[in-house]
Specification:
The chain is α/β, with parallel strands linked by helices. The protein has nine helices and ten strands. Strand 7, helix 7 and strand 8 form a beta-alpha-beta unit. Helix 1 crosses helix 2, helix 2 crosses helix 3 and helix 5 packs across helix 9. It comes from Pontibacter amylolyticus.
């Protein structure tokens, strides 16, 4: 017994007409008759009562129609889902990201994913710089956006775009974009920063800024979470340096002053991951990043 025979049976059970059913199923009437006869022989059950004027379901045939119709619908649904998985349009993708891209790049990317792959579930994670490689290698994450390229040879990174660093001060602060002359203007200010002792490209960039101006920041609060940093700056507890994309959040009571320094954004994934979902997502990542690279050029 083949699945196609069941499809022929269910179509005939609906039409109750061999010629109409044959046209609907794109086979000849004689081929349809052979398939139904073969199914009856296989089952040892008469499915239809036939004469020259009509075709009727037997009681056994009506029973099988009622049982097989929902099963065939379920099989078709499963086949469709399997095809979507094969094409990378169904499943789950786990994405890690830094808080700085939560206000621009990530919403744009997720919008693109939702439009192109509406049945794909997206899990978003904001890990620390220390844990993202471990999360990728342990399959707890599929893609990570970071300010640093991956160091582990089992991972692959691709540069997406650069954006400027910005000095972030409370709205009431004395410095503005017009009167700011350099970081030496802040030698007596309190800073809220990531731990500058961390060995990441991001913190190396921050250290370079202070070294170029030959100042040692008076760091009073340390945190790696940009959203918290912005909240503290808005309360007047200090100043900070963050990627300019944090400004897209439009947080009140803070002012962003662009600096002549930039930081990069990379996407990282497992080298051994050849899944269709990853391929589709990386394509959308490249398209979204191209728009941001154009803005910065």
């Amino acid at each position: 017994m083949e699945l196609q025979q069941i499809r022929y049976f269910l179509a005939l059970a609906q039409e109750l007409h061999f010629w109409n059913t044959a046209e609907r199923m794109f086979i000849t009437q004689s081929a349809l008759s052979r398939q139904i006869k073969a199914l009856e022989i296989e089952l040892g059950v008469q499915l239809f009562e036939r004469n020259k004027r009509s075709v009727k379901l037997t009681e056994a045939g009506a029973f099988l129609r009622d049982q097989w119709a929902p099963l065939l619908d379920e099989i078709n649904r499963v086949h469709l889902q399997a095809r979507k998985i094969h094409e990378g349009a169904f499943g789950t993708v786990r994405i890690g990201y830094p808080g700085s891209i939560a206000y621009g790049f990530m919403p744009d990317l997720i919008t693109s994913i939702s439009k192109a792959l509406p049945e794909l579930k997206v899990d978003l994670v904001e890990p620390t710089d220390i844990s993202f490689e471990q999360l990728l290698l342990s399959y707890q994450m599929d893609i990570a956006f970071r300010r640093d390229p991956a160091e582990n040879p089992a991972l692959q990174s691709e540069w997406l775009y650069s954006e400027p660093y910005a000095l972030v001060v409370p709205e009431s602060h004395r410095l503005t974009g017009q009167n700011f002359t350099g970081m030496q203007d802040l030698k007596n200010d309190k800073f809220i920063l990531s731990n500058l002792a961390q060995t990441t490209y991001y913190t190396a960039g921050l250290r370079q800024i202070f070294e170029d101006y030959r100042i040692t920041p008076d760091v009073r609060i340390e945190t790696d979470f940009g959203g918290m940093v912005l909240g503290l700056v808005s309360k007047g507890l200090g100043v900070t340096i963050l990627p300019y994309s944090y400004s897209f959040g439009n947080l009140p009571n803070v002012r962003f002053i662009p600096l002549p320094y930039s930081t990069n954004l990379y996407v990282t994934w497992r080298r051994s991951d050849y899944s269709p979902v990853l391929k589709n997502i990386l394509k959308l990542v490249s398209e979204t990043a191209a728009r941001y690279a154009a803005k910065g050029s």
